[in-house]
Amino acid sequence: MTEFAFSCTGVRADRYAAGPTLVFRLRITASPDTRVHAIALRCQLRIEPARRGYRADEADGLADLFGDRARWGSTLLPVQFAQVSLVVPGFTGEIEVDLPVPCSYDLDLAPTRYFHALEEGEVPLLMLFSGTAFTGPGGYQVEPVPWDREASFRMPVAVWREMVDQHFPGCGWLRLPRETMDALLAYRSRRALPSWEATVRELLAAAQAASPDLQPPPPACALSGPAVPLATGRTGQ
Question: How confident is the model at residue 137, as a pLDDT?
Fold first, then answer.
């Protein structure tokens, strides 16, 4: 049976992808002199939050995911990031390939909220591999990629931020149920407000006036700045 080993040598943000996408560089090694015709590879990526430290402001941003820092001994569990597939072309000995991983900027998703809370440093990832390999010097032999194949990688937070800024420069993203979106649209129309930012700011100002102990909204962006997109969706999606 062919022995496969995997490692990740780097990651970059894909500048030309239609949506936010990270591209991981994989190095795959097979048993010496074994001809690999192709691999139908599956990769599961997990965030391992216990493998790094956090500043006070980062800990505050992670409270919704893991609770108070005092509880992190039991709550700082792995977070599923992505599961992707790749067809690896034929090689003998060793090959390097790109593994594209589509990402989301939906802050309702645990991985996105985790990345968003980090200001600097690295994200500890664990990559778990499986799949089917087609090998053999003459014909084809079909064999599984063992389930215990894995690789650790520390992804710079700066790469994630670069990817997000390519697609949502200076913006945040909200996913709202359709009924809430319709209510906001009706409110904006009644008030003749020029943008979604103005709509949200007026609601925040009204809430602050009703409860003075609330923190007031920050100053408005310049008119030339980017708008804040609001994504619609149904509850539970």
Answer: 84
